[in-house]
Amino acid sequence: MANKSYILLISLIAAFGGLLFGFDIAIFSGTIPFIQPYYNLTEAELGWTGSSLYVGCIIGTLITGYCADRFGRKFPLIIASGIFMLSSVFMGWASSYSMLILWRIIAGIGVGAASMLSPLYIAEVSPAPIRGRMVSVNQLTVVIGILLAYFSNYLLADFENNWRWMFTSGAIPAVVFFVSVFLVPESPRWLINKKRIDDARVVLQKLNGSEREVEEEIRGIQTRMSNDVKGKLTDLIRPGITFIVMLGIAMAVFQQISGANAIFFYAPIIFEKAGMNVQDQLFQQIMIGAINLIFTLVAMQLVDKLGRKKLMLAGSSLMALWLLLVGICYYFNIFEGYILTFFVLAFIATYAATLAPVTWVLISEIFPSKIRGIAVSVATCSLWVACFALAYGFPVLIELLDAPQTFFLFSGICFIYFIILLKFAPETKGKTLEQFETEIIRH
Known about the structure:
83% helix; Sugar_transporter_CS; transmembrane; Growth Hormone, Chain: A; single chain; transport; MFS_dom; mainly alpha; transmembrane helix
């Protein structure tokens, strides 16, 4: 019988990587009102400051797969936690703008590593009956990390050297992660892959308890590994496969360019355009983070009940509507009361309940088993490239086009995505991966 309390404990420790992932991508937004005048940044320089983190993310995703296969899951998690810890301090107390950028890129390597390592580790230590719930803990901690970053920004806004303390505050959860990750065991699947059967048996006994179940699990892992056939990049352009790979990449990219991350990263700019002061801007971010958390919990209940395609269609169409209404608010200067705030929060709620989690579910399900690993890597790398482009371009875009046109543009992007999903997106609800793979090959 599975030792659920122990599995939950080590999953929560690993999920700290997700929490710090969310914290690092969100903390920058609170520094914007202070760091831009401090360094006298242009809009393009502000965009580079925000997006430099995602250069590191791309590097992190490219090297982490090799490191995880070569050194296991635990050691790279320790390195990632160390990167989070050091980069938080050095970003906060960077002696120059160029050093700030350097440490933003280094921090991004930790973020990119955690985005792959934490869910991978949790999936490999969790028994099948509770694996879905355990992996969903990681997505939940990402959202909690975003909310904690917004709280940190709000509380530190009145401090001297406020933006420096905002960056530095990430070191507190990073230290907890760094100390705790030494307590987790190595992934039993990796140990078996490296022929360290006795070590894997010790770990599995802690996870499962029953000696008979442990031996069955070892034999099952060995059988699956003997049947595994690794895909190559050239397999992605085979007839019948290229389309589903391009669809996966499109889903990853549209999730990033839908406009949600522009709000997560640059909410102070958005609310400043509506005439709000700094304190109000940062409080609005807390509301955004809270709504994001609440509706992520809603999504975890809906995705297996309503189906993937229905949620994605509802999400993309409603997001197009909310962004259109936000653009109208800016166009006609409708800033009285809470109208603008309501539309922004409705947009974030829709995103959190649909595109944010369901994109990851579909990306993990739609690819045939032979190319699943490499296709997910390509889609994830595409996601970070799109994230970089958005983070870099949004401050410039909103300055060049002005706020109404920018939100009308994002609304149009969401509507185009709705059409693509309506015509091409598959429904994987209630189907095993093998059943869906057979359907792909048949079509």
